Amino acid sequence: MKTNTKKYLAQPDGKFLLKDFSTTYDGHLDKENGKLELEKVKKELDEYQEKLYASGSHSILIIFQAMDAAGKDSAIEHVMSGLNPQGCQVFSFKAPSSEEYKHDFLWRHYKALPEKGRVGIHNRSHYENVLVCKVHPEYVLSENIPGYTDVKKIDQKFWKNRYENIRNFEKQLTDNGTVVIKFFLHVSKEEQKQRFLDRINDPAKNWKFAAGDLKERALWKNYMQAYEEAIQETSTKNAPWHVIPADKKWYARLAISQIVSETFEELNLKYPTLPKVELAQLETLKQQLLNEK
Fold this sequence. Notes:
Blueprint: E1 9-10, H1 31-55, E2 59-66, H2 72-80, E3 88-92, H3 98-101, H4 107-111, E4 119-123, H5 132-135, H6 156-175, E5 178-186, H7 189-201, H8 211-217, H9 220-234, E6 241-245, H10 249-267, H11 276-290
Parallel strand pairs: 2-4, 2-5, 3-4, 5-6
Antiparallel strand pairs: 1-6
Helix pairs in contact: 1-10, 2-10
Keywords: Kinase, Transferase
Family: Belongs to the polyphosphate kinase 2 (PPK2) family. Class I subfamily.
GO molecular function: polyphosphate kinase activity
């Protein structure tokens, strides 16, 4: 049973409000049926990925953004389980290094792009530069951008320019054969609280929780505003955002996998067809093998 994945799309050039998107939607499925559907989609992904590699005409870049405990890591794990690891590369972006701060904010993301025939997954991405950096504009000062030596100078014009840089970056990618799929895992504040408590109460999950997580949680409203504006400004026809209901992890994984599968399907990838000369040579080689004693 396919769900209507278009309902998660942040329409390009349209007014975007997070409140218009549910965090609890489950496609009218129960957990067990959702898992069965996910297994079907994984088989589709395996075949599509083989065609992607064989054709060598496109690459796929999957971007995950979310608040802490929204389920990015587990979603990536489940999407990956339907793909051949040899054809994938996963990057988890942390705070920039001193070397990375010596370059523009997109430099390290250019370096992590998948080559044609492969799937790249970015756990956090260049969007951190208009999300966490917007909530904490003091981080921008570490970039040493000429003219921006004080937080007060980081105004709306600065952010508009940065959104434009991102749109141009993604347009360049899509113009050259990279398909960009962007996911925001939309978790509620109440569900995040429960997942934090689970991490504290379960010794096996204690390592996932840090005091800093609560400091960022206290800025929830600021983050939601930053996400809302970033999605509004950068959901384009060539690289739209998908806002995934994430309060139920099993459903988020299914929705994400279905969107990736549908994106592959729309590419209409084919296995390469050999020229007649090479096909004739194959027939000759086949006979040579069959005639072996």
